[in-house]
Structure formats: structure tokens, C-alpha cells
Amino acid sequence: MQIIPIEYGTPEYDEAVRLRYDVLRRxxxxxxxxxxxxxxxxxxxxxxYDNRAYLIGVLILTPDVNGIYMKMRQVAVDSHVQRQGVxxxxxxxxxxxxxxxxxxxxxxxxxxxxxxxxxxxxxxxFGAPFEEVGIPHRSMEKMII
Length: 145
Description:
The protein is α+β, with helices and mostly antiparallel strands and about 140 residues long. It has a single domain (about 1-105), classed as Aminopeptidase, CATH 3.40.630. The chain is about 30% helix and about 35% strand. The protein has helices at about 10-25, 35-40, 85-100, 115-120, and strands spanning about 1-5, 45-50, 55-65, 70-75, 105-110, 125-130, 135-145. A hairpin with a 5-residue loop joins strand 3 (about 55-65) and strand 4 (about 70-75).
């Protein structure tokens, strides 16, 4: 596996959007709008490729305007390779990446079903449960300094 940054607006970005749609949006009956995708211009997009150069996982890091934390979002792993460590490696890489950019913490909104995954990676819950895209979520965070 190889994890590398993906540039916004490239064919690789389009491939990442397709994977995110297949894993995260389609099951909920949701689409990506052009306006929504346009907001991702300044984000960091990370892609995980298998040894045959197929995109098997993605995530986005959105910098906090104050430069303190990055918000991890849109974590998606191809259904054919879920539970094989791809997500774990993507998250670990994102932590090193965020730290190298001077950030101290990663925050995220985890689907309730993903909370145990993030807890195993030492993320902690904060705040009350809430609903996002029609399903239960929890806010989580991890210091990376």
C-alpha cells in the first residue's frame, strides 16, 4: 500500500470522489453537489493505493482557520478491502501529515458505527451525540503533538 496526497480537481480527485460516493453517500441516498465539492479546494486529500495502483481508501483533512487542528472527514475504504487495515493506515498517515503541517490535534465526526474503530486508535469522544446526514454521530478528537 502507498498513501499519497491527491490534488484537487485532478483525475485522481475525481476517482476519490467516486469512492467516497460509493462508500459514504450512495447507501444513504445522497449525492455530492458541485457547490459542496467546490468547498474542498483548500483541503488536503489523501489516497491509499494498493500495489496495483488502485485507489482503495481516501480521507480529507480540513485545516482549522486558527491553525490548531485539522478536521478529518469523508474517510472511505473500498468495501472489498474493509477490515484489512487500510483505514488504520490512512488515519495513522493523516496524523503524521497533520503534525508535519504544524497542527496539534485532529477532530472528526464519527458515525456511531465507526466510534469503536477510532477509539482503538486513541480518539476520544467529546460532546453529546448528534445527527448528521440522517444518522447518529459522535464528535471525537486526538492530540497529535
